[in-house]
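Chapter review: from sequence to fold.
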Amino acid sequence: MLRIRLSRQGSTHRPFYGFVVSDSRKRPGSSQVETLGFYDPTKKPSVVQIDVVRAEEWMKKGAIPSGRVSAFIKKAKKTATQAGS
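The C-alpha cell string follows.
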C-alpha cells in the first residue's frame, strides 16, 4: 500500500522534510516512488512547497496521505484557490 508522508532529510537540529510517496511497509527514509515537494520549518515563516496536482493523482491511484500531509494539501489548495481569485 502506498502512502504520502513526510520524510526527514535534514541534519541534527536542522529539520527539513520531503513529501514523498513510498510503500507503507518500509521506513519513511528508505526508497521512495516519487518526491512531491518539501517542508522547511526552520524558516520564519515556514516554507511549504507541494505539487498538489501530483498528490491528487497519487490519491486517485490509491495512495493514502498521512494526517499531517493531508493538512498541508488542504492548506495548499486553499491558498491556490485564494491566489487564483
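Two observations follow directly from the output. The chain has a mean pLDDT of 89. Residues 14 and 42 are 7 Å apart (CA to CA).
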